[in-house]
Amino acid sequence: MRKFESLALRFDGEKIWVLDQMLLPQKKIWLDATSPEKMIEYIRALKVRGAPLIGIAAAFCLARLAESGETEAEYRKAAESLRASRPTAVNLMNAVDKLTAFRPGQMNVRDIVELAERFFREDQKLCENIAKYGAELVLDGDGIITHCNTGGLATAGVGTAMGIIRRAHEEKKKIHVYIDETRPLLQGGRLTAWEMAELAIPHTLICDSAAAILMREKRITKVIVGCDRIALNGDFANKVGTYGLAVLARHHGIAFYVAGPYTTIDLHCESGADIPIEERAADEVRGVCGAFGEVVWAPRATPVFNPAFDVTPAALVSAWILDKGVYTTEDIKRGGLIECTQS
Ligand code: MRU
């Protein structure tokens, strides 16, 4: 496999490295994720995260395994475990399924490597397209709220929702970004705040619960978020809290956009009801842990509900910003998402 490098994923010709996103931005530590066991551990722990990036990272891992001369049986076993490492982001399943689509006994290392390499390069192009189409919707003076992290840390390229914001900023539009801190794992407060600062995009970090005030005061004029899985009817899963933002946006008459590549569309999901939602450990909500140590504020035995994602119904979405263009509700109703997955 050729060498590759993005903000949080690197292949140096021998090993696959992931930037530990649970330690960012306080510490920048690269972890060797070459073995499937390590890659699975890091995906589960969100050390490598973001729907497009986990698909590509898993693909790199399988390509490397194939190159190492592993048997087809072992390769398929590793693929199955990688595929199951997180349940909601469909990019992971879509990537692994393509890398295991060959007939039994027909494993071809060159084909596998070429496919993994293509996923990386393609994601960069998909991000560029999303950024281009989405930036056209951003106006001078917009106050944009975003949730979680959808930038270079979550993709191989400029990101999805974040790529749009970045492109609008590069086009010299005067925008201000409100970043939801994104409880419980703080992808907004730690990762998006860091990326925004690196890119010198004007921004303000808020508690998730402060969005309503800013909408009422008209300081937020648009919501742009990413996604982990889009069902065929346009319902989509994204980081928990996204649904609440969509409800708030509707109440305040504010446009709500979701951005994602075709690799996030699930042709097997008719609606959001079919999307499996990951539930995570109770301790993530009872306190925090990371580069800043462990702080627990809730009683140790407090019962917790900790879904990592929620589903936003299509009825609350103003438009879907995809790599092939901006899709309206009418486009989605006439089967636009199926068309988007076809090249
Ligand atoms: O649990 P995470 O941090 O992997 O969740 C990520 C998100 O919800 C992102 O918004 C989504 O993957 C889109 S990234 C381009």
Q: What is the residue-mean pLDDT, rounded to a whole number?
A: 97
By CATH, the architecture of the largest domain is named 3-Layer(aba) Sandwich
Give the SSE string.
EEEEHHHHHEHEHEHEEEHEHEEEEEHH
Shape estimate = globular
Task: Write down the domain tally.
Answer: 2
CATH class of the largest domain: Alpha Beta
List all distinct small molecules, including ions and cofactors, that are bound in this structure: 5-S-methyl-1-O-phosphono-5-thio-D-ribulose
Helix content: 25-40%
- The quaternary organization reads as single chain
Derived from helix and strand composition plus strand pairing, the structural class reads alpha/beta
Q: How would you explain this protein's 3D organization?
A:
- The protein folds into two domains: about 120 residues, Four Helix Bundle (Hemerythrin (Met), subunit A); about 210 residues, Rossmann fold (3-Layer(aba) Sandwich).
- With about 350 residues, it is an alpha/beta fold.
- The two termini are about 25 Å apart.
- The radius of gyration is 19 Å and the shape is globular.
- About 40% of the residues lie in helices and about 15% in strands.
- Helix 2 runs antiparallel to helix 5 and helix 3 runs antiparallel to helix 4.
- The site of 5-S-methyl-1-O-phosphono-5-thio-D-ribulose has 19 residues, from helix 2 and strand 10.
